[in-house]
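dude i think i finally got it to work??
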Amino acid sequence: MKTMKTMALLTTLAASVCFTGYVQAEENMRIAGSLRPGSMMDGIIQTFITNFNEKSGDDYKISYQLVANDQEMTQQVIRGRLEIGTTGLAGAAVSIPPAAVLSMPYLWDNDEQRRWATDNVVRPVLEKIFEDNGLVIIGMGDAGWSNMFCKTSCSTPEEIEGQRFRIPPAASARAFWQNVGVNGVQLSLPDFFTGLEQGMVEGGDLPFTFYVTTPAAQFAKTYTTTNQYHHEQVFFVNKRFYDSLPENIQALLKSSMPTTDEMRQRQDDDEKAQVSKFEADGGKFVPLTEEQQKVWADKAGDTHSALLNDLPESARTLYEAVLEGKRQYNEKK
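look at this
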């Protein structure tokens, strides 16, 4: 009897081990971000998830996890509490300060120059900086220009002088806002939206295709194309986790990403569609001319030198890559 009980126990344990082994072999990865359902960038994330899950087999799957605070999310991926993350470089720069270079105010002359220089000269330098901070970049897209929005009118610096505007935590964003003469308030995005609703602040800046998915578009309905700095969207994986994956899964993570060109086209198309919808819903979209944008650039002044002095040395390497990329682009024209 004792022998039969012992054999039954061993059989149960063996089955348990087999079952446990199966569960451990299945890797459920999470890609985290602050993108709202239905937004253009959320659609890119869903494309990535679908592409990966269709080809990964049963052992590896990806799902989306909403994390409203980009800075907190980036830190969680760096620490390995989340596997994959995505944010604009301005958000990532709080945890990876050299990345602030690519969000410097009035860094680029135009979109064509920015895109060519980023693809051909800047990206390898940025990838090295991320690796040094424990992250592997698996994709880059375009989240658009950060523009001014407010409750009344914000076409010139004089119109918002002294008003309470939200200042993002990234150093490059702070550099712009501190020079244009607002009464700056540093708030997380959730607190910012509450502040707009309650009248604590009058406005701020966000890329348009993100702005229209948030409560900001309800409480501050004037959006002005100041184009003060640009948001490259980055997709990254914890490096220790990435290095532990089989090579075919590493490759699949990268190949499942829509290409940079596709992501940019989706951004451009979505912005055009969203502007029409925004105006139909009572929003005011104010496109500024190059001359009007230059007024803002002149007001912001030379923020680059001061930012570089406050950033780690690798920021200068990234900035030099930007200048070299601009030089090569202008030369080939």
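Confidence is low (pLDDT under 50) at residues 1-24.
im so relieved honestly
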